[in-house]
Design a protein that fits this description.
This protein is of the alpha/beta class. The protein has helices at about 40-50, 75-85, 95-105, 140-155, 170-185, 200-210, 225, 230-240, 250, 265-280, 300-305, 310-315; strands at about 1-5, 30-35, 60-65, 90-95, 110-115, 135-140, 160-165, 190-195, 215-220, 245, 255-260, 290, 295-300, 320.
Length: about 325
């Protein structure tokens, strides 16, 4: 494996959180709520960043994590639990989690650890001055949809039909689909959308995609789909359908190509916002920041299974090539 970026490895699903920070921030215990689908690498980075800021779990920090495990319908109840505790700040990953937190409270500060789009989905009206109790970090997934399609076209010059797998319960995915259709029209590429609303529907959607034999598949930015990444990647490989993915975790299980924001870095920066908020800053005065670090990951072994020859122009732009 050739890599230009370091990343954290979680072995066997077990996560060892840091026990001490570099600097102490006082004896008062801060209680942070966390809403996400799964305890993946970005969540590990958040814990480590909090430790680096001097927060020691079990001493001056309690993290109340609620993981929906691909069930977006769980978020409202989880958000209500965190509000009832109460927590000092709620940190979210993904659009459904952010909406659940927003609907649950107008008082407790909310930090969007990673959100695909905050304005077009209606979470905030202004990035520079979000006002209210919400701020955070945007992964720019709406803008990246066009770039993902352009990358597919570069890899597959004869690309004429793309299937998009998306979660229709995710407000971001509806915005993304409109963006993808506009981009596809410019590239003279037809788009077929395959929608799911739960993890139980993913298998049927994959079979429907295979039956239509698209030239390629684009996976929407969604944590419910991310939880089914092994099933999705295996289906693409078994049927020799190239697919492009939004999150690094797809590459970890053999996904062909990933193009997206570095979510771990966004969660690391989120820890800084949490620190500032618990020390007295108002979330509405902290601008919603956009991602500045993006990554292209390519799996050459998977490409070989598709009998694809990758152009040097793509390989040279890759941040990581898995051989």
């Amino acid at each position: 494996m050739r890599t230009r970026r370091n990343f954290i490895t979680v072995l066997g699903g077990a996560v060892a959180w840091p026990l001490a920070g570099r600097a102490q921030v006082g004896d008062r215990t801060r209680r942070i709520g966390l809403l996400a689908s799964l305890p993946l690498r970005p969540i590990v980075r958040f814990h480590q960043a909090m430790a680096d800021l001097g927060y020691v779990e079990g001493k001056n920090l309690i993290i109340e994590a609620r993981f929906a495990e691909g069930r977006d319908d769980r978020y409202p109840a989880f958000a209500a639990e965190l509000v009832a505790l109460p927590v000092d700040v709620i940190v979210t990953w993904g659009t459904p989690a952010a909406f659940a937190a927003k609907r649950a409270t107008t008082q407790i500060p909310i930090v969007m650890g990673a959100i695909g789009d905050a304005v077009n989905t209606g979470l905030v009206s202004n990035l520079a001055r979000p006002d209210g109790n919400m701020t955070g970090f945007v992964a720019l997934n709406v803008e990246l949809e066009e770039k993902r399609l352009e990358l597919l076209k570069e890899l597959l010059p004869r690309l004429s039909r793309v299937a998009i797998l998306l979660n229709s319960r995710n407000q971001l995915n509806r915005v993304n689909l409109d963006t993808a259709r506009r981009a596809a029209q410019k590239l003279a590429v037809a788009v077929d959308a395959f929608e799911v609303q739960s993890t139980e529907e993913v298998g049927g959607a994959l079979r429907a995609i295979v039956d239509t034999r698209p030239d390629a598949v684009l996976l929407a930015s969604d944590t419910t789909l991310l939880g089914e990444r092994q099933q999705i990647v295996d289906a693409m490989a078994a049927n020799r359908i190239p697919a492009i993915y939004p999150f690094r975790e797809y590459a970890d299980v053999g996904g062909f190509i990933v193009y997206g924001s570095n979510i771990s870095i966004l969660f690391e920066r989120s820890a800084g916002y949490v620190d500032r908020i618990v020390k007295g800053e108002k979330p509405g005065n902290l601008p919603v920041q956009q991602a500045t670090t993006f990554e292209i990951l390519i799996n050459l072994k998977t490409a070989a299974g598709f009998v694809l020859t990758l152009p040097p122009s793509v390989l040279v732009r890759a941040d990581e090539v898995i051989e």
